[in-house]
Amino acid sequence: MKKTVLLGVLLVLACPDPAQAISKLSVGPARLELKLAPGSESTYLLDAVNHGDDTLLVKTFAAEFDLDEAGEAQYPKAPGARSCSAWFRVNPQTLELPVSASGSVRATVRVPADAQGTYWCVVFLEDVPPPAPKRGRAFSVRMNARIGTVVYIDVGDVAEPKLKLESLAAVPDEEHGGFDATALVTHAAGGYLRPAGTWELVSESGDVVATWDVGFPLLPGHGYRAHWASTVAAGRYRVRLSLDFGGPKRLVGETVVTVPPKAP
C-alpha cells in the first residue's frame, strides 16, 4: 500500500530563526493514521519540497515522540514501550533537493508479529548543514530545519475508547471582565483518538452567548488539558464542554462561573 500527499506541516525547528526554516522545507503528509495487522508490512511515500534558495541535503530517520497535556510534542532520548520508530526503514537515508525541486522518501513499516495496541513515532527529514567555512571567511549563520510526518498505528483489535472528563473548572477574570476555563480529559484505553467539539457559554436564560471550537490528538494512557478564556458581560453563566470521540455518545461536562464587572 502506498500513499502520496503533497502538502505538509512543519513539526520541529532546529534553527535560530523559525521563520526562515519554515519557508525552505516542507514535507507531506503531515501525519499518517494507520490500522495494521501484526506481522504486516506497508510502504508509504513522503514528499519533501525545497522552497529555499539553495540546494538542500536532507537526512531521513524515524524517532520517538510523546505528547504532554498541552498537546505539545516531546522528544525523549530513549524509545518508550509504545514507540514504533524501530519498525521503520527509510530509503533513501539522504536526499538531495535542488532549488524549487521535490523528492520522495519511501517509509516502510514492518509490524512485529507480537505487537498489539497503539504505537506512535515520527519520520523526520532534517537539513544537513554544509561544512564549516575555512578560516578568514566572514561569519555566517545557516538555518537548519527538521520537519516530520507523525505516525499513529493501531495494531490488531483495539479496545473501545474510554474517555473521561477528570475535571472542569472556570474562574472569573476580575481584571478583564471575563473567565478562564480548564478541563482535563483522559484516555484510559482504546486506540489513537482525535476528539473534537465545542466550548459553550450559556446565560441564565439558556442562550448560548459564546462558543469556541476545540480538537486535539489523544493517545492511550494520556491526558489533554483543554483551555478557554474569554471576555463577556458580567453575569452568571454555565461553561459547557462537549466532545465527540467516536464513542456511542458525546463526552459532556459543565460548570458555573460568575463573571464580575470589568475592573475600572
Structure description:
There is one protein chain. This protein is mostly beta strands. It has 2 domains: 12-155, Sandwich (Immunoglobulin-like), CATH 2.60.40.10; 163-259, Immunoglobulin-like, CATH 2.60.40.10. Helix content is 3%, strand content 53%. The protein has one helix at 18-24; strands at residues 12-13, 25-28, 31-36, 41-50, 56-63, 66-67, 73-74, 88-91, 94-97, 102-110, 117-127, 145-155, 163-173, 178-187, 196-203, 208-215, 222-231, 235-244, 251-259. Strands 1, 3, 5, 9, 11 and 12 form a 6-stranded mixed beta sheet that branches. Strands 2-4-10-8 form a 4-stranded antiparallel beta sheet. Strands 16-15-18-19 form a 4-stranded antiparallel beta sheet, with no helix packed on it. The longest helix has 7 residues, at 18-24. The N and C termini lie far apart (63 Å).
Which descriptors would you attach to this protein?
Immunoglobulin-like, 264 residues, 4-stranded antiparallel beta sheet, 2 domains, disordered N terminus
Average of pLDDT:
85
Number of H/I helices:
1
- Determine and state the CATH class of the largest domain: Mainly Beta
- Beta-strand segment tally: 19
Structural class: mainly beta
Largest sheet: 6 strands, mixed
Task: Give Rg in angstroms.
Answer: 23 Å
Low-confidence stretches: 1-22
Outline of the structure:
The chain is mainly β and 264 residues long. It has one helix at residues 18-24; strands at 12-13, 25-28, 31-36, 41-50, 56-63, 66-67, 73-74, 88-91, 94-97, 102-110, 117-127, 145-155, 163-173, 178-187, 196-203, 208-215, 222-231, 235-244, 251-259.
